[in-house]
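Please produce the structure of this protein holding beta-D-ribofuranose.
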Amino acid sequence: MTDRRKLIIDTDPGIDDAVAVLMALACDEFDLIGLTTVFGNAAVDATTRNAHAILHAARRSDLPIVRGASTPLAGTYAGPVPHIHGTDGLGDGGVARPAISRDDPGPAAMFLCEQINRSPGDVHILALGPLTNLALALRLDPSLSGKVASVTLMGGNAFCAGNATPCAEANFLGDPEAGDIVLGAVWPVAMIGLDVTQKIVLDADALSEITCGSSAVASLLRAVIPCYRRFFGATNGIDGLLCHDPSAVAFLIRPDLFEKKSWPMRVETQGISRGKTWPDVGATDRPAKAWQDRRPVSVAVGADYPTISRVIVERLRRLL
Ligand code: BDR
Ligand code: CA
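Below is the modeled complex.
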């Protein structure tokens, strides 16, 4: 048996979050030690309930789910995105969602600190929503950055347009200040952003493959996918899903399928470009002071897109 990497997923389910969490559960490379939730695709109470529904479908209700931030570090939560993820965050497909218990351990930032300090050097973090919980954890315990095995995040756009605004990707727009803290911390970060995730598609055939059968997972996927599929049909003109969050899981198990480059990164926190992730590619005619002293972040800039789509399907099929 290979060494299983301890993994915490910080998530805002969210339809593609649901697919990503299920995919991670199907990966024997990981020992998933908990989910932390954050506002984003829906309010944090909803994303927490959704996390419970996802684990229930996968028969993994034994795993801790820890409720996290309800608002970004600065400003207020902009609200859910019913046209993308439904009013319930799971596509309004009738998924039964348990009521959440106020007795949950928490908050998420504290759970992250506890787990990482319990196993220094061993815990990997996969962040699939706004980065508020991670920034709060660093604020609680600045030594954390030296104790995390890796941080992989879905979010950002280095060299392409945004999806939430012309400039910004949704997770970074959700909390640009937290994003800037996370990209600036001295820990090994990989950014899996729109540069690649917008090209990783589950087409109609792939969707048929992951929704067939009578398992609880297939039935959850059948319930949540239509809303997301309608959105991409209307917005991107495709019959299928763009696989944002599952692509970051694919990166953790098959990094060889991604082309990466490393640059210091900043996040715009002002004006119409709020939420834009900016690499310092080193082509300026004067020192880039705002990027100085930042450790390079590994940024996915290309990938074997069709193979990654297959990997996502094959892993999900293990749960059907
Ligand atoms: C990201 O934003 C959310 O809508 C998705 O769940 C994903 O994490 C894509 O920009
Ligand atoms: Ca997400």
